[in-house]
TrEMBL record, chain A:
Membership in a protein family: Belongs to the binding-protein-dependent transport system permease family.
UniProt xrefs under CDD domains: TM_PBP2 (cd06261)
Natural source organism: Shinella lacus
Alphabetical list of Pfam families matching this protein: BPD_transp_1 (PF00528)
Membrane topology: Multi-pass membrane protein
Subcellular location: Cell membrane
TM stretches of this protein: 35-60, 97-120, 132-151, 171-204, 225-247, 289-310
Protein name listed in UniProt: Sugar ABC transporter permease
InterPro entries attached to this UniProt entry: MetI-like (IPR000515), MetI-like_sf (IPR035906), Sugar_ABC_transporter (IPR052730)
ABC transmembrane type-1 domain sequence ranges: 94-306
Keywords: Membrane, Transmembrane, Transmembrane helix, Transport
UniProtKB/TrEMBL annotation, chain B:
Keyword Endoplasmic reticulum: no
Annotated family: Belongs to the bacterial solute-binding protein 1 family.
Protein name in the entry: Extracellular solute-binding protein
UniProtKB keywords: Periplasm, Signal, Transport
Compartments it resides in: Periplasm
Record carries keyword Flavoprotein: no
Lineage per the UniProt record: Bacteria, Pseudomonadati, Pseudomonadota, Alphaproteobacteria, Hyphomicrobiales
Amino acid sequence: MTSHVSKVVSLRSEAPSAPTFQAAETENAERKVDWVSLLVIAPAILILLGFLALFFYGVYQSLTDMRLGRPVVRFVGFANYIALMKTSDFWNSVRVTVVYALSTVFIEALIGLAIAKLFATGVTLARWLRPFILLPLVLPPMSVALMWTTMMNPQSGILNYFFSLVGMGPFSWISSPTTALISIILIDVWTYTPFFALIIFAGLQGITDDLREAARINGARSWATFINIELPLVAPYILIAAVFRLIESFNQFDIIFGTTQGGPGNSTSALSVQAYISAFQNLTFGRGAAMMVVNWLIVLIGATLMVRAWQAVRRRVN
Amino acid sequence: MGTALLATSVAVANSAAAAEMNWRQFEGTTITWAYDIHPYADALSAELPEFEKLTGIKVTPELYPDDSYWSKMTIQLTTKSPAWDVFGTGIQPAWDLAPSGAIEPLNKYLNDPTLTDASYDYNDFFPALRSALTWKMEDGQIAPGEGGEVWAIPHAFENIQLFYRKDILDNYQIAVPTTPPEMAAACEKLKAADPKITPLGVRGVRFWSSIHTAAVSIAQSYGVKDWVMKDGKLDTGLDSPESIAFHKDYVDMIKKCAAPSFANDNWYQVVDGISSGRTAMAIDSNMFGFWNDVKGQPASGKIAFAPPLHAPNAKSFNSNIWIWSLAMNAASEKKGAAWLFMQWATSKKVTLAGAVTGKLVNPPRTSTWADKAWIDYASQPEFNNFVESFKTTQDQAALAFTPRVGFGEAMNAWAVAMQKMVNGDDVETTLHALAEEVRAGL
């Protein structure tokens, strides 16, 4: 199928006898089109074009002064982007987005690795815990946000109650600009760490006992075995999980909007949240679209770097 | 404005009274009515079989949770979808939707005697409510004044009041405060007496709804204007000396009185606090106090009412209003049937029926407030001084915001600035930055 498809469109041209004849010869090139193959892959191409068209329509909207509720839409070029970049709030949103995404992915990878390692030991308690640890992952993010909002209430929340039992707190959690970002990172970590644990556990399961046995015979301690053998072997798994989670974290909306709506002040106003507020609460759709395009660029850069890292690690492991 | 409104109202009333209308003229039609999940919707839903019997029109209610309703409404109307025929709205969302022609102006229906029953009596609605829902569009902007169109019909409304737990204030011998400094002092006394009690429940979320209750009502008494004309040009008054004075008092009051979760508190947290007794006082929509006074509720009989706070040197208070109204989708393909439904739903009979079941509170018609059935119901001992406080407040109640397309953007920025100031940012610096942001959006 692959070779067949590669021959869908082929251009055959004779070697030019002189540079002056090149243009004419190109025009005369015989074009062979495999219409049947084109017909077969047409739906896929159409769907792809549909996705791309929607994306580029979004980009176009970011170049207009589109306001929901106003009939006239004018093309304003990069005015939305320029206006955004002149405000400190926008750069704050970029900072919040990047800090949120990188922190959550890093912490989730670390804890996920620890949990996966625990699962891999086969300890009875770990076996029992396995189904429960996955529970946060199957909860709708908005429910997670509402649940944590209640638990993090500085006065009546259960978290402060527990801390009070050991003489700590009360903490402001999501109600203070100094702790709000850390608090929502904590919620994300609670929700998505099981995803990392699951993927890394699968990676650890793929390592045969021969390797561990060989290391043990050669005198390696368990910690050294983990660092020098297991960790490099599961690194591609960690990185592929990180790629998915990084993309999701850059786009995270439900948890942030469901808990703080971007506040207090602008302390948790990630780009996705601020774009929603611009588009659907302030009705300045063009500006909201510009924020989403910037967010998309950040996702693209982040994901590209992670994929490259994953490819490099995989090559090294192979 | 008042004269113009009167002229419009009289014209509407006269022409509507001229002939008989046939309630069954759109028999067999099915229409969709969209609304927030709300006791007001419950009140109307309970009466729907009566409407269907009267007109032969079937009504399909589409009710959405509050958090998602407004976005859904914006999308539905701006995309010109004909799926909804009648929808519930407030005044402010209607300002942003009107320029695109998404909302059907209603004068022609009100003035058509074949479509409006002679007994409808549009002038029976409180003048402040009619005034708030009447304007014309000029160069894409809201222009209240002569010749305005009616854009929606009041269904029920809220005025902003201070409501409080009588049992708590009596227990600690605290007088009902009337100004922000008095409130701050009362809060300190309450906290000293019982640290577990939150003295005052106020909305603080990062959305203009947290401004439209306590903040804007009290701000008005300080002389704060959201928009002003300076040298013939529109400007914001949010960095004026009056605004700085108000914010200093208000922020100080919030710091001393509100829950630590202020930035996350919406109306449901305010209501939960007052009904559970964790909060001693609240400044919010008065009917929240009323609904918790209803027999059988845990706080029944414990919540009493007072007008909102005012500036220490002001002679009187101000109270903002929020009007739940019924509007018609301009893209509706069943406008006649939609109008009959709106007319019936806001009629004297349905308004009274909803009020005496304790749901359609506050009723928007003056005739309801003169009706013995409603007054007897609302004057029952468990509602304490609800009726008196309503009457006192309603005299001073009016829309506190300047009607304007783009209202949400500026007022959301105000809510964000309020959070910053409560969290310790300098009041003057924050207000100047807010004003610059608002000016940039003009």
